[in-house]
Amino acid sequence: MNIQIFGKSKCFDTKKAERYFKERRVKYQSIDLIKYGMSRGEFQSVKSAVGLDAMTDLNARDAEILKYLAGDAAKEEKLLENPQFIKTPIVRNGKKATVGYCPDVWKDWD
User: Fold this and answer.
1) Please, are residues 46 and 98 in contact by the beta-carbon 8 Å criterion?
2) What family does the entry list (predicted)?
3) pLDDT tens across 56-102, in order?
4) CA dihedral angle for residue 13, residue 48, residue 23, residue 103, rounded to 10 degrees
5) Which domains does the chain have, with CATH numbers?
6) Residues 34, 88: contact at Cβ < 8 Å?
7) Cα–Cα distance between 41 and 46 in angstroms, integer?
8) Please, what's the b/e burial string for 21-42 (b: 16 or more CB within 10 A of its CB; e: otherwise)?
């Protein structure tokens, strides 16, 4: 298992996800989404697993701007430029990914 957790330092669900894997002694890589962002490849991998709408945090400050963008390509660019608009935590295991706290899905990852 090669687990990556993309999260925000003040996100409660990110801390819960890290604790979930730590308690099960599963090694993971924690990435501060605001500080480091996501590469285009990582973003595309997660998007193909969960979809663009699931990744978008409409509750983030100034997220109203996303509603006015024409098309998914413009929305993707805005999310890559402004990672605060990405819902967290994003947990990746190869081509599999989840958004949010999803222990029911993670327990089936081998």
Assistant:
1) no
2) Belongs to the ArsC family.
3) 988 888 888 887 877 888 889 989 999 999 999 999 998 999 999 99
4) 70
5) 3-100 (3.40.30.10)
6) no
7) 9
8) beeeeeebeebebbeebbeeeb
